[in-house]
Automatic annotation (TrEMBL):
Gene Ontology MF terms: ATP binding
Listed name of the protein: ATP-binding cassette domain-containing protein
PANTHER family according to UniProt: ATP-BINDING CASSETTE SUB-FAMILY F MEMBER 1, ATP-BINDING TRANSPORT PROTEIN-RELATED
SUPFAM superfamilies assigned to the protein according to its UniProt record, in alphabetical order: P-loop containing nucleoside triphosphate hydrolases (SSF52540)
InterPro entries: AAA+_ATPase, ABC_tran_Xtn, ABC_transporter-like_ATP-bd, ABC_transporter-like_CS, ABCF, P-loop_NTPase
Region (Disordered): 526-548
Keywords, alphabetical: ATP-binding, Nucleotide-binding, Repeat
Source species: Thiomicrorhabdus heinhorstiae
Domain ABC transporter: 2-246, 313-527
CDD domains to which the protein is assigned, alphabetical: ABCF_EF-3 (cd03221)
Amino acid sequence: MISLQQLSVRAGTKLLFSDANLSIYPGQKVGLIGQNGVGKTTLFKALMGEVPLDSGQVFFPADWLIGYVEQEVESTQSKVLDFVCDGDSLYAQAQKELQLAEEDGEQQRIVAAYDQLDRIRAYEVPTKARQLLYGLGFSDEDLQKSLKQFSGGWQVRLKLARALMQRADLLLLDEPTNHLDIEAVAWLEQWLKSYEGALLVISHDRDFLDEVVQGIAHIDQQKIYYYSGNFAAFERQKNERLMQQQALHDKQKQQMQHLKSFIERFKAKASKAKQAQSRVKALQRMETVAAVQALNPFHFQFAEPKYQPDPMMELRGLDFAYGDKAILKHTDLVLRAGDRIGLVGINGSGKTTLIKLLVGELQAQKGKIVTAKGVKFGYFSQHQLETLSLEQSPLQHLLKLPDAPSDQEARDFLGGFGFSNQQCLESIECFSGGEKARLALAIIVFQQPNLIILDEPTNHLDMETRDALEIALQEFSGALIVVSHDKHLLASIADQFWWVHEGEVSHFHGDLDDYLQAQLKRIRQQASEQKSEEGKNNSQNRKQLRQANAQQRKLLEGRLKPYKSKQKKVEDELAKIQQQLAEHHALMEDQSLYEDGNQARLQECLKQEAICQQRHEELEMQWLELEEEIQSIREEFENE
């Protein structure tokens, strides 16, 4: 178990966490969420010891390995398959030891190295790495290339694959879906669901969180609040709590007003001075419950198109290639007024190329695109933020557009995208990626397009902005073409899909789930064929890897068995106590509990909650003590 206790952390002068707490148990999968800038990535760095703690402690077993995606690559000369296999540090160390032993010709070391490879089931590692790489969109041909032959986005995928190969007890993933296509995201969901270690993942992708996690850690107001269940369950619980919070706030406001009235009326009268003073103290002690604010600060909508030609665009016999590599061949498509198209296909298949052809950024080598008169594009590209002028303010960006609004109209308009009057006047140079993305969306919305084309619009957006964008696009009556790895967004706004595959663009007959299931089936079939072939080649290696140290491993397991058995009982009781605590918390949110005449019931609830909390702390301490015993036995065994 890893435990964050009374954690306080700063980023410069900004306090990110104040007395925050969180516990993660073996095998538990938790989504870490919160608005941009609240400290999600800083928390990861604190777990890895990369940022100092102002106060508090982070406890985790001494033998726990924390896995993460490396930011820097030591050598870009490494072959892809070797680079990913070496993410398994035990495998990499054992292979290196075998190589050195063979170079020195020391038979005893060679035997020991083979035994270690057998113990860690090394013959399975290349197969596992291949499955990972297939799932993330790499081909057999790619596996023998060096890292330097891949673009930055594909290198990010390779670093993710290397991280997933780690035998980590806790895996930290920060926005793992951002550089993936929707097919790879669907495959990653399946991989992580079967991952045996604990997982803490930062993500703004609600469908991804719904598929992968069983708990949500929400960072809010410098605290970490844990909710059981996936993201959908978190939203239900949070909304219920906010409604109860509003009711409690209203009641408390009445109580506070009553106290204030009494104080004002009687504080000057000697006979009532003592009672008034007691009410002053009561007022000071009363914890003010904040009123529920509007849940989403962003609200915008696309204007109703004044004119929609039909058809809007036609592609006739379109061919496009980069050098000798054909991207699109003999493409014929028709975009009708009001069409809502989801563009799907693996990264590199030509989706972005097709979009650039549609908007005129690229010119086809053959064929033509016929765009109807009156089509007005609203285009958001993957690199849209680079087109903004860093030295200008959001207001200046809007005022320089054709048909620019008045100064006040522009400010009001930008307010719907979360820009305050002060932010409207600031240079965007210091804006976050999410703030710049909101400005880019604002510019598109203002221009009132009748054809919106979005290429990965959500990469820098938090959930609140994604929700606002989704609602605005659902209400938009013009034509729409979207590329996105966000399954929730794509499924909610597209009603037909164009599949870009092997140079062709075709209509996919089915919904998004049908498409993703077909792609997962293809990946599994590819991996299965490769596994079968490797199984034939590795049968002799597996025989060589099996050594006579199995009895020693059985001896170690025998020593550990009673401690692991006790630990399992503690974990089972912890789970029950956690459930009881959750029930108590739900009961405490019952508004009737605080009404007159229910004091005894309230006191009993508080008492039972305190008993459960104390037992929870005792069990956590027992678990940690048993884990220390297990680690001690392992160390003794290795030194014998």
